[in-house]
């Protein structure tokens, strides 16, 4: 038996966190360690950022195509954040789970609340920054947003953190290695608690 990856049908893990909290780094590390853990690839209408790849980071869609997929009920959830639409492909998730893979949805709180409202079987994890001051420092350090966008993201982060108690787990990412150990332990515990 492996530490992780012993299920006939994988689980759905929903991870939310404010921008700049380190969620992408944590999820990438987990997927690298465990081949049975895959990251869902969201669809989005926003422009591709430097270094992002189509089909690896996101599926980049035109607004019209995104709207058509909504009409066709192809999204498990969808939301508009900072003027751009994001959605999770239902067929992609179901296919991965049938292969015994645990699927991670890295989505904002709007999308997570949609999944909660549908009572879909999922494990919800919220990753918090140690403080808003530290989050500001991280966002400014990325040098990818203007100061106005940083302020908007901080305002949004406060609203998101108010919803954190609705999640099954909360992880404070004050030290990356500790936060990773906690995330890893959650995945292992959930599989061994709920093994199918």
Give a short overview.
By secondary structure, the chain is α/β, with parallel strands linked by helices. It has helices at residues 23-33, 63-71, 90-98, 109-117, 132-142, 147-162, 176-194; strands at residues 12-16, 37-39, 42-44, 58-60, 75-81, 84-89, 102-106, 123-128, 169-172.
Q: Can you put this structure into words, describing what you see?
A:
The structure is a single chain. The protein has helices at residues 23-33, 63-71, 90-98, 109-117, 132-142, 147-162, 176-194; strands spanning 12-16, 37-39, 42-44, 58-60, 75-81, 84-89, 102-106, 123-128, 169-172. With 196 residues, it is an alpha/beta fold. A five-stranded parallel β-sheet has the order 2-7-1-8-9, with helices on both faces. A four-stranded mixed β-sheet has the order 4-3-6-5. 32% of the residues are buried.
CATH fold title: Rossmann fold
Q: What CATH architecture would you give?
A: 3-Layer(aba) Sandwich
The order of strands across the largest sheet is 2-7-1-8-9
CATH level 1 class label: Alpha Beta
């Amino acid at each position: 038996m492996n530490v992780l990856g012993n299920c006939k049908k994988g689980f759905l893990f929903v991870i939310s966190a404010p921008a700049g909290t380190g969620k992408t780094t944590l999820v990438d590390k987990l997927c690298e360690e465990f081949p049975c853990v895959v990251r869902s690839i969201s669809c989005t209408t926003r422009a591709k950022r430097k270094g992002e790849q189509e089909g690896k980071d996101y599926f980049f869609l035109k607004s019209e195509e995104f709207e058509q997929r909504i009409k066709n009920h192809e999204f498990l959830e969808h939301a508009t954040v900072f003027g751009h639409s994001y959605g999770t492909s239902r067929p992609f998730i179901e296919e991965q789970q049938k292969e015994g893979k645990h699927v991670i949805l890295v989505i904002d709180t709007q999308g997570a609340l949609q999944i909660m409202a549908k009572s879909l079987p999922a494990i919800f994890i919220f990753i918090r920054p140690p403080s808003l001051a530290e989050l500001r420092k991280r966002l400014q350090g990325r040098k990818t947003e203007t100061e106005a966008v940083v302020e908007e993201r901080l305002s949004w982060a406060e609203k998101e953190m108010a919803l954190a108690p609705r999640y099954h787990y909360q992880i404070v990412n004050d030290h990356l290695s500790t936060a990773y150990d906690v995330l890893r332990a959650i995945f292992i515990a959930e599989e061994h608690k709920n093994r199918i």
